[in-house]
Amino acid sequence: MSNPALTSEDRRALGGLLSAWGKAGRGPSLAASAAGIAQYALFIGFAGFAASAIANLVNGEDFLIPALFAALFAFARAGAQAFETRAGFEAAARVKAHVRGEAARALAAKGPAFTERLETGAAGSALTDAVEKLEGYFGRYRPLMPVIAGAPILMVAAAFTQSWVVGMLFIITAPLLPLFMAIVGGAAAAASKDQIAVLARLAGRFNDRLQSLALLNAFNAAPREREGLAAASEDFRQRTMKVLRLAFLSSAILEFFAALSVAAIAVYVGFSLLGEMPFDTGETVTLREGLFVLILAPEFYMPLRRLSAAYHDRADAEAAAGTIKPLLEYPKSGVSIVPSTPFHTSPSLDLSRVSCVYEIGRKGLNPITLSIPAGRLSVLWGPSGSGKSTLLKILMGFAPLSSGEMRIDGEMMDAPLAGRAGWIGQNPRLFHGSLRDNITLHDASIPAEMIERAVAQAGVADFLIHLSDGLDTPLGERGFGLSGGQIQRVALARALARDMKLVLMDEPTAHLDGEAEARFLEALLSNKNGRTILIATHSPAVRAIADEVFEIADLQEGGAP
Ligand SMILES: Nc1ncnc2c1ncn2[C@@H]1O[C@H](COP(=O)(O)OP(=O)(O)OP(=O)(O)O)[C@@H](O)[C@H]1O
C-alpha cells in the first residue's frame, strides 16, 4: 500500500514518528487489540451454539440450552467490542495529549524568534485539526493490526473443523480484498494529504485576513478578499469531496468482494445440503455445519472491512504527522527558557562578542561588546535593522545566542533572563481577561498593595477611574478597549508589580504620540531608581532621559548586519 505523494524515505520517517508517538498509548492500544481478538473468538463460540440451536430446532431436538449459550457468547462479545472501542479511544487520547504537549514544549523552546514568524492560523490548524486526524490511526488502525493477523487465523481454523472447502474459500478470498483496497487507497492517501495541506493554508489565510480586517476595509479590499476566500473554500470543498469519493469507492469495492465471497460460500453450503454439488468434494455438510460456516462467513471479512475503513486513518495520520513534524523539531541553537527567580538588586550586564544568527540563517546581530552599568537607564541607539531588538531578545532567551559570553554582576550567565527581568515589547500583548489578570498574569502571589502601587506608578490609575469596574474591567483580546498608550502603561505596571530590578524595553514608545510618550517617560523616571533599565529606541525623547547611550552600530564588529 503505497502513498504516491510521499517518497519511501518520507514514509519511513513519518512511520517512525508515528511509532514513537504510539508509545504514549501503548497500554490501552494493546488492551484494545486483545479485546479485538477476543471478540472474534467469542463470535466463533456464538456461531457454534447458534448453529446447534437452529439445527436442533429444525430436527425437533432440545434447542434451549445451545440458544442460551449462544446468547451468553453474544453478550460477552458485545462487552469485548465495547471494551475494544473504549480502549482505542483512550490510546488515541493519550497520544494526542502527548503530541500536543511535545509541540507546546518545542514551540516554547524555539521561543518568540520562531513563533513571531509563524503563520498562527497554520500552526493553530496543525495543533488542532492535524492532531485530531491522529485519532483514527491510534484509536482504530493500530489496535486493529494484531486483530487482522490473529482473528482470521482463528476463523479459518474454525471453518476447517467443519468444512475444508469453506476453509479454502476463506484462504483464497482473504488476500484479494486488501489488494483491491490498496489500489484505491493509494490515491485516497494522496488526496487526503493534499486536503490537509490546503486546510492549513486556508486556516492561515483566514486568520490573517481576520486580523487585518480594519486595514482591508480602509483600502476597500474586503470584497476582493471575500471573493478570494470564497474561491479558496470552494477549492477546499472540492478536494474534500474527492477524498470522500475515493473513500466511498474503496469501501464499495471491499463490500462488493466480501458480499461475493459470502455468496460463494452460501451457494456451496446450499448445493451441498441439497446434494446437488456438480463435483465431489469428499465431504458432506450437515445443517449444523453449514449454518456454522454461514454465520461465520460475513464476520470473517469484518476485520478486513474494518481495516479498509481505518486505512484512510493511516493516510490521514501520515499527512497529519507531516504537518506537525516541523513544529516539533527542536532548535539547533538551543534557546531554552528555564523558570528562575528575579534579581534582588539592580544588576550590571557585560556582553563580550555576543552575536546572533536566526534559525532561518539570517544574521540578527554582528558580534558586539558592551557593558551596561547597574542601576542606570541605558539606551540602545542605532538605525533600523542594526540588531537592537535582537540584542534584547538574546538577553531574554527569545533569540539564539550564536557566539560570545554574557555576564551578569560579573558572573557567567548560564540561562537567559526570562523570568528574572521585566520585559516590555514593541506591541505588548494583552489577553482576554480583567485588567488585573493582565497585570498579574494570573500570579496570585503578587500582594494587592504591590498591584495598587504599580498601577499608580505606571500611570494606569489615570485612566482607571474611567473604567466601569476598575481593575476588574474585562479587556478584549489584544487589549481591545484600551488605547496604545494605555496598553503600554499596563505593560509597565506588569513589570513594576513584580518589582523587577532589571527591565528590558523594546521601543516602548514607538506607537505613542508626544503627550502619551511624555506621560510614559514620566512614569518611567519616577520608577527608575534602584533598577537597571535597558531600552532599545528611535525616540529622541527617550534618549534625552537616558543615563547612558550606546550607539549599537559602532560597537559591532563589521557594523550592523
Ligand atoms: N525572528 C527573526 N527571524 C529572522 N530574522 C530576524 C528575526 N527578527 C529580526 N530578524 C532580522 O535581524 C536583523 C536585526 O533585526 P532587529 O529587529 O533586531 O533590528 P532593530 O535594530 O531592532 O530594528 P528596528 O529598529 O527596526 O526595530 C534584521 O535584519 C531582521 O530582519
From TrEMBL:
Domain ABC transporter, chain residue ranges per copy: 349-560
Transmembrane domains' residue ranges: 30-51, 143-160, 166-191, 246-273
Family matches, as Pfam families: ABC_membrane (PF00664), ABC_tran (PF00005)
SMART domains hit by this protein: AAA (SM00382)
Alphabetized InterPro entries for the sequence: AAA+_ATPase, ABC1_TM_dom, ABC1_TM_sf, ABC_transporter-like_ATP-bd, ABC_transporter-like_CS, ABC_transptr_CydD, P-loop_NTPase, Type_1_exporter
Recorded topology in the membrane: Multi-pass membrane protein
ABC transmembrane type-1 domain residues: 30-316
CDD domains (alphabetical): ABC_6TM_AarD_CydD
Keyword field: ATP-binding, Membrane, Nucleotide-binding, Transmembrane, Transmembrane helix
NCBIfam families xrefs: CydD
Name the record gives this protein: Thiol reductant ABC exporter subunit CydD
Record organism: Glycocaulis abyssi
Gene transcribed to yield this protein: cydD
